[in-house]
Amino acid sequence: QIQLVQSGPELKKPGESLKISCKASGYTFTDYAMQWVKQAPGKGLQYMGWINTQTGKPTYADDFKERFVFSLETSASTAYLQINNLKNEDTATYFCARPKFHYWGQGVMVTVSS
Amino acid sequence: DIQMTQSPSFLSATVGDRVTINCKASQNINKYLNWYQQKLGEAPKRLIYNTNSLQTGIPSRFSGSGSGTDYTLTISSLQPEDVATYFCLQHNSGYTFGAGTKLELK
Questions:
Q1: Dist CA B34 CA B50 (whole Å)
Q2: Distance of residue B48 Cα from the nearest chain A Cα, in angstroms
Q3: Which of A38, A101, A103, A108 is best to mutate for the B interface (most B CBs within 10 A)?
């Protein structure tokens, strides 16, 4: 069955970087783009952008054009979200999802605190 | 960018009640509107896609309707397991989520 399995929770300090993963299984990885979504504590869902899994080209929503990097390891059917120069407001759960948002990863809780 | 205004933000209802949640788009989204249920600590689950298509495995008490800029999710007879937060998502032009409706039992 189709699954998106994300890496575990992260606790980081402001200014640090992190890279979270989203491993796909049950389908051909390059047949579908990968989307990323942020959910701050107690808040709604915010669309971050997507990466073309055939070309590796990322597209970022306006609020995520700096410090955020989408990448791939196609041989491992894995997409990555890297966040550089972490800020307190990056504290959130980050989800990967396939287009049209039917299949979702379980989410990665990221806490940024000094 | 398309904005989505979801209402109400909070809803308290009794088991068996008919419940409706609304989303209004800032422009015509051509019925490209999905509804999601999210329980605490879980990923969202798609209930309805393209306004009124019920996702496989979702109970028939959930239904969707609408056109143009106005869309509605209806739960015909609220069950205890329906306590959750509900979101809409437009996918006509990019993606925009509604702010969510937290549904609780009275």
A1: 6
A2: 10
A3: A101
Which residues from B are below 8 Å from A when comparing CB atoms?
Answer: 1, 34, 36, 42-44, 46, 49, 55, 87, 89, 91, 94-100
Q: What is the pLDDT of residues A2-16, one digit of tens each?
A: 999 999 999 999 999
- Choose among A78, A70, A73: nearest CA to A49: A70
Q: Classify residue A26 as exposed, middle or buried by CB count within 10 Å of its CB (0-12, 13-18, 19+).
A: exposed
- Provide the pLDDT confidence category of residue B10 given band limits of 50, 70 and 90: very high
pLDDT at B41 over 90: no
Q: How open is the CA angle B24-A92-A56, to the nearest 5 degrees?
A: 85
How many Å is the maximal CA-CA distance in chain B? 38
Alpha-carbon distance values, A66 to A2, A80, A109, B36, B70 (Å): 31, 16, 20, 29, 34
Residue of A nearest to B97 (CA): A45
Question: A104, B44: Cβ pair inside 8 Å?
Answer: yes
Output phi, psi for B30, to 5 deg: 55, 35
* Rounded distance between C-alpha atoms, residue A30 and residue A77, angstroms: 8
User: Residue B46: which of A45, A95, A101 has the nearest Cβ?
Assistant: A101
- For residue A44, give the chain B residue with the closest CA: B99
Q: Is the pLDDT confidence value at B65 over 90?
A: yes
| Structure tokens that stand for B17 in this block | 């009640």
